[in-house]
Model the fold of this input.
Amino acid sequence: MTFKEYKYTGERDVINKTLTHVADITGYFKDDTELINPVLVLKPGYSVTTSNYFLIDGRYYFVNGVTFSQQRLLVQLELDELETYKSSILNEYAVIGRSYNQFNIYQTDPDMPMQNDSDITVKLFPNGFTEESWLLTTTGGSVA
Done:
């Protein structure tokens, strides 16, 4: 079976990764392997030190480790769900309920408690107001 070997230098949790093709290599899957975390078996002579990403039969994989056993190179892989299923993900319409780095303070989220306390201070102006009425309102501060 032929595997496409790539180099990837970006973040893991993005879609539309920019990949640099390294080589097309021949090998096979280790017996009783799985699709999510397969193990590739390569013959000696291949070097996967310059790559960290594979495309196999329409699925994208990160390299999790490389070991040498019984004159064979064993490459442990991990499925990249975002890149593998990116067309389905990008064609979906969804309302995102939470983000790990951007928060919506108007949306109820039990994992992000909010505090809403009123602090009202009334101060009289010593000289009062003349001729017209005024209303002065200030807001601000920080949550401690």
Remarks:
- The mean pLDDT is 82.
- The chain is about 5% helix and 30% strand.
